[in-house]
Each structure stands twice: as structure tokens, then as C-alpha cells.
Design a protein that fits this description.
It is built from 18 helices and twelve strands. It is an alpha/beta fold and 566 residues long. Strand 9, helix 17 (516-527) and strand 10 (534-538) form a beta-alpha-beta unit. Helix 2 runs antiparallel to helix 10 and helix 5 (116-158) packs antiparallel against helix 10 (277-318). The protein is elongated, with a radius of gyration of 34 Å. The chain starts with a helix and ends with a strand. The model is unreliable at 326-346 (pLDDT under 50). Its EC number is 3.6.3.-. Pfam families: ABC_membrane, ABC_tran.
Length: 566
């Protein structure tokens, strides 16, 4: 247990060490504010003592000092708030950027282990939990400890008995923390799981609203939503009940301490007289300054446990295996771009699959002993029944997955993730982003100029419909291309691929939503591309196969050259 906690603390430190100076500054300001609160209690005592003695000079002096302390409190509190906001946002942004960078550079198979909402919940909720602990809870704990220690010694100077009474609650706090920690860890993990399930349900319901409506599932989905909410509510109530019981014991101990201080002060006041009034006032304030940190430490403990639990979940994300890049991702990207900027727009040799075998489950192969080649400038078609491995073969070529055995070569080099820079890909389905049409096209080539964009739209038969839109290229489209027909969305994804201008062009059922005439226009543009790329077309349509130099058929886990198309 301690080893895990130490690992988590080190992980948090490693992510936040660049902001260490700012965190130290916040801690320093908080500690000064705690000391000011203690000094205010002693100044109040001196002011009351001066008033009971009718010492006018002392009264004025202590009033001025008290006023300066109050002004200092206000100024430092404002500075602390501004600094905390800056540090909080800075740490959150840095941590989210690092996690995002790791996620998008992890292997494709690792992504399949997590629902997208699971990743979203962790990168938002868990990062927020840790950030809050670093910038609020931790500085608060240190400030409370400073207040506790300084108040204890100040109270000790007035009464040894009362100072010991004030910290008598500590043994109870330590006892509760042992039980409290395990329970809170459990509650945090379970609540986050339910939160992920809840968000996942909402996302999938909205993304698939057409299915929900067409299958008349509105009431069914609503009932399921209520079920998830009730489960979340029950967990929250259990956590709240547990917290209330623990805090109740602490509150009872504190009230007993106040009762003792009040009885002791009353008796002392009746014996000594009005001269003890200043001591009694200071004791109440100092006792409060000791009890407040104890309460604060108690309430901070759940936040610490939540942060450590959140760290476990983020470490799990960081353990997602990266693609075949060096350990420093950013340096790797620079290295890749430098290396492949020198590659010509055409491939001099071939793509070669040599005895490739693959199965998502190793004991259930999809491809067996696959060997074939594609020469420079060739257009090949891939056909075969659904589920026979056509898209799997493309994923192998994109290096999203890796052969269980055998090798794949491009230009005589073993295929690796760096070769993606040579590929322009049009996947199945609608893969447009929300935003403008222009932004979507520039995913293919961020530096494309206006003439290149117009040419790509012409080649994909998309220019006419884009120009007919009110805002043309600046027209905003919704998630998954909402606002466009399937055919229009498909033409834009083809234009995006044309704009990328790479020596390998892959089309996975890329013309399935196009009418016959539009499809022929697009296919002719592909046929006449200069320079001529290697083009791989997955299709069931004879019109697409008509431009192919060779056709390969995938069936029964094997590949064979097909001499004619249906």
C-alpha cells in the first residue's frame, strides 16, 4: 500500500515540478495568512487587556496594528486567489496535454481497450481532481498545519491545560483515517465508473439518435438513464453517510473541547475578575484556530484519497503501449518529418507482403500466409466476402496492427509507423469533424493554398455543391458531417485525400455512397493522377474495379489474383 502511495506521489510531483515555484509561492502566502490569524488573536487579547486597564495609548496602538493585519489579510488573500487560479489552469493544461499526447501516440489496439468516454472522463475528471489537490488541498493542508502549530504554541503560553485539551482530538482523527482511506478509495473508483457509464450512455444515445427513434426506444433509453442515475445516487448517499458519521465524531470531540474551555474560562473569570477576560477571549480564538485545522485536515483527507485514486487511473492511461516511436514523442515526430521530407512524391519500388499471418485473436487467424506485391504506379482492387480481412489488410499497411508472423516491405524497408507519412487514406463511413468544410479539407494538407483546394474539390466532384452552400468553404458542418448527405460527405473525404498528395492512395469503400456518374468522374480522376500513386481500392462495385491493373480476392484466409471482375 505504501509503495503504491509513494509511486503515485512521485507521479504527481513529476507532472507538476515545472510549477513547483508557483506552488511554493501559494503555500508561503497561505502560511503567512495562517500566522496573521494567530497574531490577530494575540493582538485582540492585548487590545482587550488595554481596554480593561483604560490605557488609551496602548488601545490606539493595538487598533492600528489590528487594522494593518486586516488589510494585509485582504491583500494577501487576493494575491493568493489570483496565483492559485493561474497555477491551477497551468497544471491542468500541461497534464491534459501530456496525457492527450500519450493517448494519440499509443497503439491502435490499446485504444480499443477503452471507450472514448472513459478516456474523456479520465483526462477531465481525474485531472481536475489531481489539480484541485495540488493547487488547493495541499497548500490548504500546509497552511492549516502552520495555523495549528502556531496556535498551539500561542495557547500554550496562556494555558498548558487548554493547549493539551485542544489537540486531544488527534488520536480519534488518526484512528478514523485508517478506515476512512480504504472506503473513500472504493467510493471514488465506483463513482467514476458510474460517471463514465452515464456519459457513455448519453454520448451513444445522441450519436445514434436515428436508431433510437427508428426503433422506438425513447422510453426504453429513458428508463435505463434513470436506472444509472439511481445507482449513482445510492453510491453518493453511501459516501455521504460514511463521511457524515466520521465528521460527526470529530464535531462531538470538538464541542466537548469548547465546553471544557468555556467552563474553565468562566471559573477563572469568577476568581481572577475582569483582568482574565482578555485571556479568555484569546483562548476561544486560539482554540478555534486549532480546531479549524483539525476539521480542515479531516475534510482534506477524502480529497487526498480521491487524488491518489485518480492518479491510479491516469497511470493506467500512461501505461498504454506507444507505437514504435522513441521514448520522447515530440523528438520522434520531428525526426520522422525530417527524414520523410526528403522522400519524393513517388515510390521507386513496390509494396510487398511476405508470408503475412494475422489474427486479432492469435488462435483465430484472419489472414494466412499472405504474399503479394504491388508495383509502382499500379492500381489494384481488393474484393472478397465481408469479414474476410480486406480492412484488416489495410490496417496492417497503415501499421495500426502488426503481423503475427511474416513481413511487409515498402521500398525494400520493413514497414513501420513512419511510413504513414506516405499514405493518403479514405476509410469507410463518415469521418468528417465538426467545423468548417475548409478545416476538414486542410486535415489532408494544412499548408494547401486556394488553388490546390479548388482542384481537389473538382477532382472529387465536390466543387459544385460546395459553391452552392451559403458560406461555401466556410460552411459549418456538425459532428460526423451533419448537414450533408452521405454522398456529399464522401466526396469531401476523397477531396481531403487528394489534397494530401501522397504516393500511396487507399480507398476503403470510398465511392459506395456516390451515384454512378459521380463515381465514374472520381475514378477517372484517380486513374489520371500525375504523378501516379500506388492506389488500393476496396470495393464491391464493378465500376471501381474497371480502373484496376490487378484485382486480388481475399477468401478463406488467403489471397489470390483475380483475372476478371464480376
Amino acid at each position: 500500500m505504501m509503495k503504491t502511495i509513494s509511486k503515485n506521489i512521485w507521479w504527481i510531483y513529476d507532472k507538476c515540478k515545472s510549477s513547483f515555484r508557483w506552488i511554493s509561492f501559494i503555500v508561503l502566502i497561505g502560511s503567512i495568512l495562517s500566522i496573521i490569524n494567530v497574531i490577530k488573536s494575540l493582538v485582540s487579547k492585548s487590545l482587550i487587556d488595554a481596554a480593561t486597564q483604560n490605557a488609551s495609548d496602548k488601545i490606539i496602538r493595538w487598533i492600528i496594528i489590528l487594522g494593518l493585519l486586516l488589510l494585509s489579510n485582504i491583500a494577501l488573500s487576493s494575491i493568493n486567489t489570483i496565483a492559485s487560479t493561474y497555477v491551477c489552469e497551468n497544471i491542468r493544461n500541461n497534464m491534459q496535454c501530456k496525457l492527450y499526447n500519450h493517448i494519440i501516440h499509443s497503439t491502435w489496439s490499446e485504444h480499443n481497450k477503452y471507450h472514448s468516454v472513459e478516456l474523456l472522463t479520465r483526462i477531465n475528471n481525474d485531472v481536475n481532481t489531481i489539480t484541485s489537490m495540488i493547487t488547493s488541498t495541499l497548500p490548504g493542508i500546509i497552511s492549516l498545519i502552520v495555523m495549528l502549530i502556531s496556535s498551539f504554541f500561542a495557547l500554550l503560553s496562556i494555558s498548558l491545560t487548554m493547549s493539551l485539551v485542544s489537540i486531544s482530538i488527534f488520536p480519534l482523527l488518526i484512528l478514523l483515517s485508517k478506515v476512512y482511506g480504504r472506503k473513500l478509495h472504493y467510493f471514488y473508483i465506483e463513482i467514476q465508473k458510474k460517471e463514465t457509464l452515464y456519459n457513455r450512455f448519453l454520448q451513444e444515445s445522441f450519436n445514434n439518435i436515428l436508431i433510437v427513434k427508428s426503433f422506438c426506444l425513447e422510453n426504453n433509453r429513458y428508463r435505463y438513464l434513470k436506472k444509472i442515475q439511481i445507482e449513482k445516487l445510492n453510491l453518493s448517499i453511501k459516501k455521504s453517510y460514511f463521511s457524515s458519521m466520521s465528521n460527526g465524531f470529530l464535531a462531538l470531540s470538538s464541542l466537548l473541547g469548547y465546553f471544557v474551555v468555556f467552563i474553565w474560562g468562566t471559573i477563572n473569570l469568577s476568581i481572577v475578575g475582569v483582568s482574565a477576560f482578555g485571556d479568555l477571549t484569546a483562548m476561544f480564538q486560539l482554540f478555534s484556530n486549532i480546531q479549524i485545522p483539525i476539521y480542515g485536515l479531516s475534510s482534506s483527507f477524502p480529497q487526498l484519497i480521491s487524488a491518489l485514486s485518480a492518479t491510479d487511473r491516469l497511470i493506467e492511461i500512461e501505461n498504454m503501449a506507444l507505437e514504435n516511436f522513441p521514448s520522447n514523442i515530440e523528438d520522434s515526430i520531428v525526426s520522422i518529418e525530417h527524414r520523410y521530407d526528403e522522400i519524393a512524391t513517388t515510390i521507386n519500388n513496390e509494396i510487398y507482403f511476405e508470408n503475412v499471418e494475422f489474427g486479432y485473436i492469435p488462435t483465430v487467424p484472419i489472414l494466412k500466409n499472405i504474399s503479394f506485391s504491388i508495383n509502382c504506379g499500379e492500381t489494384i482492387g481488393l474484393i472478397g466476402p465481408s469479414g474476410e480481412g480486406k480492412t484488416t489488410l489495410i490496417r496492417l499497411l497503415l501499421c495500426l496492427i502488426h503481423p503475427n508472423s511474416g513481413n511487409i516491405y515498402i521500398d525494400g524497408q520493413n514497414l513501420n509507423t513512419n511510413h504513414r507519412k506516405l499514405i493518403s487514406y479514405v476509410p469507410q463511413g463518415n469521418t468528417l469533424f465538426s467545423g468548417s468544410i475548409l478545416d476538414n479539407l486542410k486535415f489532408g494538407n494544412p499548408d494547401a493554398n486556394e488553388n490546390e483546394i479548388i482542384e481537389a474539390l473538382k477532382m472529387s466532384s465536390a466543387l459544385d455543391f460546395v459553391n452552392s452552400l451559403p458560406n461555401k468553404l466556410n460552411t459549418l458542418i456538425g459532428e460526423k458531417g451533419i448537414g450533408l448527405s452521405e454522398g456529399q460527405a464522401q466526396r469531401l473525404t476523397i477531396a481531403r485525400a487528394f489534397l494530401r498528395k501522397k504516393p500511396i492512395l487507399i480507398l476503403d469503400e470510398a465511392t459506395s455512397s456516390l451515384d454512378y456518374k459521380t463515381e465514374l468522374n472520381v475514378l477517372n480522376e484517380i486513374k489520371n493522377l500525375i504523378p501516379k500513386p500506388i492506389c488500393i481500392i476496396i470495393t464491391h462495385r464493378p465500376s471501381a474495379l474497371s480502373i484496376c491493373d490487378k484485382i486480388y480476392k481475399l477468401e478463406n484466409n488467403n489471397i489470390s489474383l483475380y483475372t476478371s471482375y464480376p
